[in-house]
Description:
The complex is a heterodimer. Chain A folds into 2 domains: 4-247, 3-Layer(aba) Sandwich (Rossmann fold), CATH 3.40.50; 253-314, 2-Layer Sandwich (Alpha-Beta Plaits). Chain A has 11 helices and 13 strands. Chain A is an alpha/beta fold. Chain A has helices at 23-32, 65-73, 95-100, 117-127, 132-146, 161-173, 191-208, 219-225, 243-247, 294-304, 317-326, and strands at 4-19, 35-50, 54-58, 80-85, 101-105, 179-183, 211-215, 228-233, 236-242, 253-260, 277-278, 284-290, 307-314. Chain B is mainly alpha-helical. Chain B starts with a helix and ends in a 9-residue tail after the last helix. Chain B is globular, with a radius of gyration of 20 Å. Chain B has helices at residues 2-20, 24-52, 63-80, 88-93, 98-102, 107-135, 144-170, 172-175, 179-192, 204-210, 215-218, 220-226, 234-259. Chain B has one domain (2-262). In chain B, helix 1 crosses helix 6, helix 3 runs antiparallel to helix 6 and helix 3 packs across helix 12 (220-226). Chain B contains 13 helices and no strands. Chains A and B meet through helix 2, helix 3, strand 5 and helix 4 of A and helix 1 and helix 5 of B.
Amino acid sequence: MLGSVVNCCDLTKEYTTSRKEPGLGGTVKSLFSPQRITHAAVRDFNLTINTGEIVGLLGPNGAGKTTLIKMLTGIVPPTKGNATVLGFEPFKRPREFRKRIALVMGQKTQLWWDIPAFDSFQLLQRYYEIPDTDFKRRVGDLGEMLGVTNLFHTHLRRLSLGERMKMELMACLLHNPDLCFLDEPTIGLDIIAQKQIRDFFKEYQRNHRTTIILTSHYMADIEALCPRIVLVLKGQKRFDGAIKDFEGVLGREKFVSLAFSTPPDREHGLWNDLNPQWDNSGLSVELQIKEEQLREISIQILSTFPVIDYSTEKLPIERVLKTLLANPHLLPG
Amino acid sequence: MVIAEIQKWRITISVSMSRFMAYKIDFFLTLLAPSLVFILINYNVWRSVYSFRNGANIDGISMDQMLHYQCWAFIVTLIVRSHRSWNLAEDIRLGRITSFLLYPFEVWKFHASEFLGFQIIQMATVCIALTILRLLGLLPELSLQALLLGILFSLLVSGLWFALEFLFGVTAFWLEETWVARVVFQLFAVFLSGAFIPLELFPPPLRDALSYTPFPLMTSVPANIFLNSPNVALASSFASLAIWIILVALLAAFTWKRGVKHYTAAGI
């Protein structure tokens, strides 16, 4: 039985902000009678994560994913509810707790801009009290895995975004954390760098069994790394389960692409209920077909229209998410 | 445990110094510019003031005494104003303290060691300024004991400024932008400390009132220690400075503890 690393019960975070009406008049008015608004960024959130799990937090901007991470790392206190992370209350921020977690922020650099990354690593070595031999070994291993050993002594400001992110990852993993929070670790990176970072985490997690909580807007990150996903909408948990179950939330459907030699009749009754997405030329279409009807409908289409290309795949998770964001009532519960 | 803590301070001081020296021209200007600005502006202003009065004393202060006081007030300013290199309020508002809340090395310790790093560099600036002023014949009397005591006192004053800046910075947890209040306080403090005009020229009631505040300790007292003035009560000055440092530091620590609950970690 695996022990739980994260346990939160009815975790809620409310923020009070002031609303300003537009224009100069609104600015003056808000100086004297500010309109305060309290809104819950996270509401009654329950979550348990076990040792060694990789969990993807999904949701649109402003859904509350990052606020949840801020509470679990102890950066902000919850308004109500409670959480234990690695057996500690995060917001008390005991030193032992801080030594065992790491947070990678894709949108914010944690390393020092004006000095080479290696100088920052040495600083972190002392902060986390990493013995010299372990430090040398980890710097060597991580540098090699990420292919950045030759850049250690270059000033951080002279590195590319991808190189900087790799240094950030190194900095966060130097102390061998038990729990790692990755907040948009691939944001802004090109697809090659994104894949390198995904591959790195796959291998790193396989070797270290680190528990990872990942938020990303790139579904490729989630699909590649997270067997389990948690969907957050308007501060609430709306789905928590295996990624394969999430793919099936909208029913077991296949995603079918067809190309035709001449434009087929779009008004034909065969297309009904298949959610056809035609391209501008009318020569290709994407359909959603229930798994159990796939064979029968495919035969009908192939025998009725001049099909020159046919491909099928399960409904991409990105499309599932997009559909659920537009129609949250489709979610179970 | 203690050794590990010392190593954290040492490496932060060393990295901070590397950062301050990362931009060469900026660094050399940091070393040289204060002396040049002082000689070109402050020193010449006071010379002109006295020349308009045909060299007559101002409230019993001769031109030489005034220029010596200004030179030492300048040296004190160089030592005590190292806190200007950082802005905690901005760090809080822009969410830059997030990483430091996660490191097993507290935010105030990081800032304090960064401040010490800058202070070490600033001492090089002080040495250059002292050399230039001495070569120009502006510091004819120099007692080693007064010099060491003055430097020690000024370093403690810089500690007081650090605690004050920390206290001001922490208010950003509630007020977000504290720049104006901070600058207004700094201007008042600098003026009331005697950095521009010796406190001897202030009206006696104001001088008496100021004696209950830390302001005279911030420039006037250390400048007079450098001048080897017999009017300075050394022991009580050191004692009251220590009390002010402890009071402000305790208040800053208390405010931090309350304020950090309001932190929103903007930007992530």
